Amino acid sequence: GTLFSPREGTMADEAPFQFLHNEVLQYIYKSAENGETDNGRNIAKLENMGFRVGQGLMERLTKDTARFKDELDIMKFVCKDFWTCVFKKQIDNLRTNHQGIYVLQDNKFRLLSQLSAGKQYLEQAPKYLAFTCGLVRGALSNLGVKSIVTAEVSVMPACVSDHKMIRKIFS
Amino acid sequence: GTLFSPREGTMADEAPFQFLHNEVLQYIYKSAENGETDNGRNIAKLENMGFRVGQGLMERLTKDTARFKDELDIMKFVCKDFWTCVFKKQIDNLRTNHQGIYVLQDNKFRLLSQLSAGKQYLEQAPKYLAFTCGLVRGALSNLGVKSIVTAEVSVMPACVSDHKMIRKIFS
Fold it and tell me: Cellular component GO terms, alphabetically (chains A, B) (predicted)?
């Protein structure tokens, strides 16, 4: 007979991805041949990995979706459906100059939550953002949008545990 | 103003983890120094990575959970809460001899769904199972249960797209 009954959703639903991302980070930095001097190459590896995940994920997410009417429409999809699929929350703020520059703001970026605030935080941040930059670039690429994706972090006061990420997309 | 409205869940909710797992696999096998001869070492790397993810995940999942009353109780938690957290479905069947051997059966194991059926399927399967074996071992370890976790695959007729995984745990 059945040994257990159904279960409801928990707040840990995004955690497997988060933990696996962290392991990938550790693995790439530990297995780097040239040691600490090779930070740029490690960042590139993470970005590439993110790119492929973003491509595949967007392919699946848009399988049954009607075509997008313009670039802004695509960007809204990234902020809403795509971001929720990966991070279980939406982008908090999307701005654009209507000339190809988009700024996406996540006020509680999950992949930074394992870092504590302070100086070290700002130094370590780039390696925690590289995968996600690639992720967005890959997602857009799958929809035919070539882009440059960069990220910046703004640290909140140490007593607040939020991690803000601002993402700029030039397409 | 807000550029978009809330969104509902989709069937792709488990996909980010799945795609990232696949990239990890590719990366480890591509970056292996000794090439194809080193399959055992790659399997061990994947198993170790899974172990750490399983440990961290179980730590988080049981943070607010009352203590378990026995080993079977822990096993049910793995089949239900833990499995759903990672694979968005429960284990389909849990059997035990009540002497420390548990058999967990997943009739639609997500991390095998990218493989097509046939001979190659059985050859390739071990590398797609290693991470998850470690995952379960790590999860149990976090709850103080030492275990040996092995996995086997049973292929359905090619016309059926289900991928069955049977997992044995000796604790």
Answer: cis-Golgi network; endoplasmic reticulum; trans-Golgi network; TRAPP complex
The pLDDT tens digits of the residues spanning A22-46 come to 999 888 888 765 555 578 889 999 9
pLDDT, position B74: 95
**Are B6 and A90 in contact (CB < 8 Å)?**
yes
A42 is written with which tokens?
Answer: 């490690």
Order across the sheet with B163-170: list the strands. B93-96, B101-106, B163-170, B148-155
Whether ipTM > 0.85 holds is no
Chain A residue at shortest CA distance from B2: A93
Nearest Cα to A77, choosing from B12, B3, B20? Answer: B3
Q: Does B61 touch chain A (CB under 8 A)?
A: yes
Q: Would you call A57 and B86 a contact, using CB atoms and an 8 Å cutoff?
A: no
Structure tokens at A69: 């009417």
Determine whether the interchain pair B16/A86 forms a contact, defined as Cβ–Cβ distance below 8 Å. yes
Tokens 């075509």 correspond to A67
* Sheet strands side by side (includes A148-155): A93-96, A101-106, A163-170, A148-155
State mean pLDDT over A127-144. Answer: 94
| CB within 8 Å: A45 and B27 | yes
Task: Let me know: does A134 contact A49? Beta carbons within 8 Å.
Answer: yes
